[in-house]
Amino acid sequence: MSIRWRLLISHTTMLIVTLVLFIISAMLIPVAITGDVRSIKDLYTRQYALKPLTKPEENVFLDVKYLAKKQPNQLLNETLLNQYDQKLDPVASGLIIRKGEKIVHSSKILNSIKDVKKLPSFEPENIKVRDTISINHQFFLYVKFDFYFPDQEKGSVVIMREVSPFVELSRSLFPLIFGLLFLSLILVNGLLSYFVSKSIIKPLFSLKKATEQMGEGNLNVKIDNKRQDEIGQLSDAFDKMRIKLKESIDLQLQYEESRKELISNISHDLKTPITSIKGYIEGIQDGVAVSQGKLEKYLSTIKRKAADMDQLIDDLFLFSKLDLKKLPFAFVDIDIFRYIKNFVEEINFDLEEKGIKITVENRMDNSAIVIADRDQLRRVMTNIIDNSVKHMKKPEKIINILINDEEDFVEIEVHDNGSGIEPKSLPYIFERFYRVDASRNQSTGGSGLGLAISKQIITEHGGDIWVKSQFGAGTSILFTLNKAK
Ligand SMILES: Nc1ncnc2c1ncn2[C@@H]1O[C@H](COP(=O)(O)OP(=O)(O)OP(=O)(O)O)[C@@H](O)[C@H]1O
Ligand SMILES: [Mg+2]
What we know:
Number of helices: 9
CATH architecture of the largest domain: 2-Layer Sandwich
CATH class of the largest domain: Alpha Beta
Helix content: 40-55%
Number of domains: 4
Structural class: alpha+beta
Shape: rod-shaped
Distance between the termini: 62 Å
Number of strands: 12
Largest sheet: 5 strands, antiparallel
Low-confidence stretches: 45-49
Strand order of the largest sheet: 2-1-5-4-3
Order of helices and strands: HHHEEEEEHHHEHEEHEEHEE
Bound molecules: adenosine-5'-triphosphate, magnesium ion
């Protein structure tokens, strides 16, 4: 069942329940007041209890009725009738005697009634004795008794009192007013259901449309939302999901792209040395390397090319093992300052040859013990420093290693004064296969795996790794290691 129908049904049910309760209470009020169940039946009938006679009217009516039955001629006796007039006067009521087609007596108060035809008609059975009547735009409550005079002429005694037409009017218009009220309720109910359902259904439809488009692979349709309510929140959440999905798909596509690129690069990188190795070997076989010196030069080139290939294959193999979480880690307690000092001493000789100065600055009060895998940590440091070395262009080449104490962990910063990294590349340098210089030039080109491997290793250690760099000024790679408890 659609929401629109549900709303309509619930509104209508509320309406019916309200009406039923209203009618029941309207019926119960007279019962409660009169203490008589039958009063319900009489609620809407034109009943006499609602228009009772006053005491003087009651008395005069009883008298004249008696006279009409026993001595009708007495009803022509003006003296007697005047006495009745006086009795009725205080209650603003009057007496009319009709004989045949003539009004033979009329109290002063009823002087305006001249036309005998306007009076209630003759009815010898005296069934409709009390009622209301409208004469010349005036409204009267009357009680009447019809009889025959001794000369067989029709006679009537009527006691009349003017009443407000409003009560009577509302009584007679009640069905119409009630009907109109009921109609307007139905109308309001319909309109309410329509607008409420529209306000719910419209955004739901646009959500549905967006979902269908997403299903067809179009993740670019933004879901417009100007609402703050629950549906607005749903739309917002949905749009966030769309953006996340789009990002992850874009990332996936990017991975796919770099993987394809890597395969083509690997093929190229493997093909180039293999071609030259083949060339040198053929040269040796053909006797081109005539001197001992030339032969040795050929062989050492072959050896270097094979080592490069070996390195590339090792990197790939390591990365895939880390990626599949198949690399076992041997975590041990390490005095971090001593470890780094030793590491720097080891590589210092190579760096000095390249004209690079390296320093270690310990900013900790005491040296801290961290938990790490010695070999993997070494790989991380090597990868970071290799990058620094590759991107050194300045005459004075400096690498600083800073060790900071951060309560539960140690932060290690490797800073160089190299080329720096453009801000637009910064978010990607830890991504697998990402290289700022995609052209893989000889001096700086690598597989783009170095930092991705480092990140995998640091993550496995429960640490974080990030970069700060100023293009042209230098780069800092920072990472954390947890302290031993
Ligand atoms: N210290 C640095 N100075 C300037 N650029 C850097 C530095 N460190 C990293 N980069 C940039 O980040 C990219 C990614 O580095 P990463 O070590 O992952 O790959 P790579 O060095 O190109 O290849 P690999 O390390 O696998 O031989 C590099 O291509 C380089 O452009
Ligand atoms: Mg590298």
